[in-house]
Every structure is written in C-alpha cells, then in structure tokens.
Amino acid sequence: MRVALGVQYDGAGFRGWQAQPAGTRTVQACLERALTKVANQAVRLICAGRTDAGVHGIGQVVHFDTTAVRSARAWVLGGNANLPLDISLHWASEVADDFHARFSALARRYRYLIFNQPHRSALWQQRAAWCHRPLDTERMHAAGQALVGEHDFSSFRAAECQARHPIREIFELTVRRQGAGVVLDVEANAFLHHMVRNIAGVLLAIGAGDRPVEWAREVLTQRDRTQGGVTAPAEGLYLLAVRYPKRFGLPEHSTTTPGFAESF
Known about the structure:
Structural class: alpha+beta
Radius of gyration: 19 Å
CATH architecture of the largest domain: 2-Layer Sandwich
Strand content: 25-35%
Helix content: 10-25%
Number of helices: 5
CATH superfamily of the largest domain: Pseudouridine synthase I, catalytic domain, C-terminal subdomain
Number of domains: 2
Mean pLDDT: 93
Low-confidence stretches: none
Largest sheet: 10 strands, mixed
Order of helices and strands: EHEEHEEEHEEEHHE
C-alpha cells in the first residue's frame, strides 16, 4: 500500500530534509529510521518539498510504499515513539497508488517570520529572522504584488538550483504585521531553490527604506540573481502547507504559527 504522512519539525537541529552521508542529522534520515522500526522493513520517503538546513516544517507531506499492514494510528503513534522530540507525525492516511507527495501537489505555501524589534529575541533566535530597523509592511506588501502571477524567477533562484526552468506561478503573496513581528506568506504552484528567502531579502530592503517599492519588479524583469540583493536567513522560513486534489482525501493543515505574536 501507499501511505501519506503529515510531518512537523523544528529545522534548527537538522542539516536539511534530504538524507546525507552517515553521521549527518537530517529530517529524512530520522523519519526513515523511525518508520522502518514500525514497518519492520526498510522505508524510503518522498517529500512534498525538500527544505534546507535550519528551515522548519509545519505542513510537510511525505509518502512511502510498504507491504506492512498497520493502522493510521499505529503509523503515527509508533513513528512518534521512535522520533526525536523535534520531529512529530500528525496524521497518516492510506492513499491511491497514483498519489505522489511531490508531483501531485497543486500548491505549496511558505511563511517567513521576521522579529522586528531593536533588540534580538532569545526565544525566537532560531525560529525567526531578526531585523532591528523598523519595517514598513505596507511598502513590502505593495512591492510583493509585482511578483504575483506566472513569471521567470531567475532573479530569485539560487545559483545551485537544479530546476529545469525558472518559470513559476505565485498565487498569493501577503505581508502583514503581527505583534512585534512581520509575517510574509507566499503560495505558488512550486518554488525554486532559495526562492522564498530571496523574495524576503528583496522585500526586507524595501521595507527598511533602502530601496523603492518598484525595485521588486525591476529585480524580477532583470532575470539576474546578482541583482537581487541578499538571501534572507533560513531560520525564518516555514513550509506551512501543501495543497492536493480533494480526491486524495488528505487532512487540511493548519496555516497558523502558534504563539508568534504572543511570544514577543
């Protein structure tokens, strides 16, 4: 059977999602070890989106094939019993054979959190980026609208990006203030390597007043990564949710970041 799982993790203690040479702590390696114990056979996972070192997952989705017969409850409880505390399984579901965690996804939603106060936060140092200068979220939101739609995002892809082409479609991009923080939400059909962090870097410069609102559109049209400014830190980035066709019957993920405003 094919099984899908909903996964949450704090990325601060991992070298990213993808399994690497022995001795490197990754989300995939920890999950595969835990689920292999539950299944009593080797488990190999496919994820909806590979996250980099330090990036967090609230709504990550994975799938695997197995001949082991277990209930959804057994996969979740058994998996969590064998996982470190910074990873947890939230649901499990048997899915059709044509389900694919990556290729069946209609959209992915990321959130970028910025702690925007003069002094750094001891509590959020690994869970939000820090900008000590006041940020104008209205300018940031207005600038981001130039990126909505289908575009060539070459200016926002990492040099090592392995995607076959730079065309992506952003469905929604919003920037708002929440407590002492700034929240950037962006949903697209797919993302390039470092795309959200590079967007955040451009909008941070605009919000701080270093660049005009029009700069986001100028960077986009130049199709040149060297014109796009800095890449924002990994610790502010969260894979928030993945959307699939309803026919697969997967649970809806929460799109909230618990305690963000209150913790400031």
